[in-house]
Design goal:
The protein has 167 residues and is mostly helical. It has two domains: 1-74, no CATH class; 80-166, no CATH class. It has helices at 2-9, 23-26, 31-34, 40-47, 60-72, 82-88, 97-102, 108-111, 119-131, 144-149, 159-162. This is MSLN protein. Belongs to the mesothelin family.
């Protein structure tokens, strides 16, 4: 339905008021389509707020979005800073485990919004959490507020993490 809607909206060219359309609609446009309205950074900041699950997890379209986002943000290697993590939003859900390990805690806030994880992502999240080198600190120092912030990641925590969290 969204794909068809995009065809209708762009029938007479790309509208100048793309920002007034739902973010999910933008998933079916490319950054070059959006360029007339704003920068690729703005485009991916909008995409990061969209419901990525409209696209199948391993679909070529979703993979292409992530590749274009990494290129737009000029992310070298597999380390994402906090500012870029904010722009990527839900796109971080598709990053590989090596990005999660190398980015430290920069991705945790966005990762807590993901629906599911692949095994290498889960392992990376546990590794980062266990290290304690995040803005949340080590699990032994967590409060109810911290758990609330990371609530989407709780299913990924293993016994060694859970037992360190204060009652």
């Amino acid at each position: 339905q969204l794909s068809c809607l995009v065809k209708m909206v762009t029938l007479h060219g790309i509208p100048k008021d793309l920002d007034s359309y739902p973010e999910d609609l933008l998933l079916f446009l490319s950054p070059s389509d959006y360029a007339a309205t704003g920068s690729c950074r703005q485009y991916f900041a909008k995409i990061g707020k969209a419901n990525l699950d409209v696209l199948q997890r391993e679909s070529s379209q979703r993979k292409q979005l992530l590749l274009e986002a990494l290129a737009c943000l000029k992310i070298p290697g597999t380390q994402v800073n906090e500012e870029n993590a904010e722009i990527l939003g839900r796109l971080v859900c598709d990053l590989g485990g090596e990005y999660m390990k190398n980015s430290g805690g920069n991705l945790l806030k966005q990762l807590s919004q993901c629906e599911s994880f692949l095994p290498d992502q889960e392992e990376a999240i546990r590794s980062v959490i266990s290290s304690g080198n995040t803005t949340f600190g080590p699990p032994v120092a967590w409060s109810a507020f911290t758990l609330n912030e990371l609530s989407g990641l709780i299913p990924v925590f293993d016994h060694s993490i859970l037992q360190k969290i204060p009652k």
